[in-house]
Amino acid sequence: MEEKREFIPCALCGSGSFTQFLFCDGFSYVRCTGCTLVQMNPQPVAGDVQRRYREFFGEDYLSYELKNEEAFLELQKLALADAGFDKIEKELMEDKTSAPAVLDIGCATGAMLAFLKARGWQETGVEISPSAEYARQKRELNVKDMPLEECRFPDESFDLALASHLVEHLNNPPAFLREVWRVLRPGARLLLITPNIDGFQARLFASRWRSAIFDHLYLFSGRTLKGMLGKAGFVTEGIYTWGGLAAGTAPAFIKRIADKAAKALGLGDVMLVRARKCPDSCG
Fold first, then answer.
1. Confidence band (pLDDT; 50, 70, 90) for 246?
2. Disulfide: which of 37, 149, 201, 266 matches 224 by Cβ 3.0-4.6 Å?
3. Which fold would CATH assign to domain 69-277?
4. Which residue has better confidence, 229 or 67?
5. Nearest in space to 109 (alpha carbons), one of 95, 90, 129
6. Which of 7-21, 47-61, 164-178, 260-274 is predicted least confidently?
7. pTM of the prediction?
8. pLDDT of 27-75, one tens digit each?
9. How far apart are CA 140 and CA 166, in angstroms?
């Protein structure tokens, strides 16, 4: 079924003034002339986007997730280490009389949730694809199979929220971040992973960049994501990037040099933003 598309204003500043940015196969990205946010325009409507993950991907999507979950989990662990996760976890474990509560939004098959549960966290996941059923049945995890905004979690329910490679898929990232803010306890953190439009690979490959795909409605820089988080009530504590060249695009020794340089300069292909919930909205 053909998806309906619509033109939308800038999701960060509300402007309707754009310049063409990337021309891809069957779709394009524009850049806001005011705040520089890059977004697909026109973009598929929310109902059609959710239908992709719930209906069209099906068992093939679950098979893909299971095949790659170990590699994805190891990358997530490395990213969390860069962002100081061990210190965050230690503080929460020492300060709380009960297990700290983590919310993994877009938790896929639940590999990360299972890892955290084994470390003593009280786990909750959100996943709209068929992977949710696998996480519930095979891993016995607490996973909701609906968008975060429909879960209606009580205010201030969680000590930590994770969202890995999710925010770029959403039609309304600001509304999503406001909901995350609502369900986090004061001072709690959000660790958010997404492709980096300011990274070396994005600059080098442009419309051929591996993250410039039809499923990604937004392509964030550290600046635009920090701005959006601030409007939702978060203070950005750090931005960490990694990935200089994709495997197979250069000899191994060149890739090692590029990876180290990209990480040191903040030009990695992927970034993790660590943000803390302000006691009151910062927007």
1. confident
2. 37
3. Rossmann fold (3.40.50)
4. 229
5. 129
6. 47-61
7. 0.93
8. 999 999 999 999 999 999 988 888 877 765 556 778 888 888 999 999 9
9. 23
Handedness of CA 282, 164, 143, 62 (dihedral sign): positive
What is the C-alpha separation between 19 and 28, in angstroms, rounded?
Answer: 11
Q: What is the pLDDT of residue 56?
A: 58
Q: Which residues contact 51 (CB under 8 A, 6 or more apart)?
A: none
Residue-range domain boundaries for the chain: 69-277
Sort strands 122-126 and 43-44 into parallel, antiparallel or unpaired. unpaired
Buried (b) or exposed (e) across 19-42, using 16+ Cβ within 10 A? eebbebeebebbbbeebbbbbbbe
Structure tokens at 173: 């990232």
In whole angstroms, what is the distance from residue 272 CA to residue 195 CA?
9
Structure-token match 């803010």, residue found: 181
What three-state secondary structure class fits 250?
Answer: coil
Positive/negative CA dihedral, 172, 174, 177, 183: negative
CB-based burial of residue 98 (10 Å sphere; 0-12 exposed, 13-18 middle, 19+ buried)? exposed
Q: At 180, phi and psi to the nearest 5?
A: -60, -45
DSSP 50-110: HHIIIIISHHHHHHHHHHHHHHHHHHHHHHHHHTTHHHHHHHHHHH-SS--EEEEET-TTS
User: Which alpha helices (H) appear in the chain, and where do they start and end?
Assistant: 46-51, 58-82, 85-95, 111-118, 131-137, 148-151, 173-183, 200-205, 222-232, 252-265
Amino acid at 192: L
Neighbours of 94 (CB within 10 A): 7
Distance CA 56, CA 61 (A): 9
Average pLDDT on 219-237 reads: 97
